Amino acid sequence: MTTRIAVIGATGYTALELLKLLARHPDAEVVIATSRQEDKSYLQDVHPSLKNSFDLALTQLDVETIGSEVDFAFSCLPHAASASTVRGLMDQGVKVVDFSADYRLNDVAVYEKWYGVEHPDSERLGSVPYGLPELYRDEIREAKLVANPGCYPSSAILALTPLLQRNLISASDLIVNSMSGVSGAGRNTNPAFQYCESNESVKAYGVGTHRHAPEISQYCTAAAGENCEVLFTPHLVPMDRGIFTTCYALPNDGVSANDAMSVLRETYRDERFVRVVNHLVETKHVVNTNYCDIAVFESGQRLVVVSAIDNLIKGAAGAAVQNFNLMCGYDEATALL
To answer: Which active-site residues does the annotation give?
Structure first.
């Protein structure tokens, strides 16, 4: 049976990738797409690449209308604004995948510290499954609301969780350095993300203040069973899309890179979209796909765990479609490469 869908906040890069995936999903019908851009009438006016895939008028956000016309919603709104909308949709029985950070963190005080706003739906925090199917599939399958992961955290958590769960690496002194293409900032008018500023240059940003840091620490702590503070530093690199993450960890009890690779292979042996590889991973091998590539190496006294994803697919829209498929009873890989 076809699932009727609303895409809320349909004008950004992530929404575009989501719509491309849904356009080829045999059981998905997008019936509502919302936008605050009053000068754009149709979805294909905002995203010309969708012409002939959709002929859908953009509408203003109206929770009651959405709740009466759809079975499922993808919320691509910013933090705080998303939770306010999601709360209304949940009250009307609509299943939701939320792209914002509003339901990723379990502690309302941590959320309000890092995001600087009062949470509009705080009573749900701690009870919403985290949308990494490779790690939380059973919870996602039964959920009415799923918190889609951040792009940087997806690359780090998939790489580190099996090693922390099996006590192969220390939960202390974890360093995560990530590099992202410019699309990670979304459709942004900030001059820092314009071509002349970002081309032919690499820079760190959000040092010690990036909002994905508590998200990575929270899920690494859950995997380790003890407090796990991660030193996370993101970098902007001059490419459109992709994330490359390098994790530096202290091995326990003489654990080797081969030991770590064996555990990763065992963990992800039956996973369609995680590939544990023997070579140096590259973003070009995962771009425009839902794959996450992972490898482990030794450097001095540390293990170096590297991973690569497409920030717009496995880091956002692809994971959302995986979650949608699980929540609606479809094959998890439907519409995904």
So the answer is: 151
Residue type, 282: E
Characterize the bridge pairing of strands 243-249 and 174-180: antiparallel
Overall domain count for the chain: 2
What confidence tens digit (pLDDT) does each residue in 75-86 have? 999 988 899 999
How far is the C-alpha of 28 from the C-alpha of 21, rounded, in Å? 10
- The pTM assigned to this predicted structure is 0.94
Which residues are CB-contacts of 10 (< 8 A; sequence separation ≥ 6)?
19, 33, 34, 35, 43, 46, 58, 76
Q: Which two tokens stand for residue 49?
A: 């690449």
Q: Which domain holds residue 284?
A: 151-311
**pLDDT tens-digit map of 248-299:** 999 999 899 999 999 999 999 999 999 999 999 999 999 999 999 999 999 9
Tell me the C-alpha distance between 288 and 303, whole Å: 29
CATH number at residue 269: 3.30.360.10
Backbone angles phi, psi at 141, to 5 degrees: -60, -35
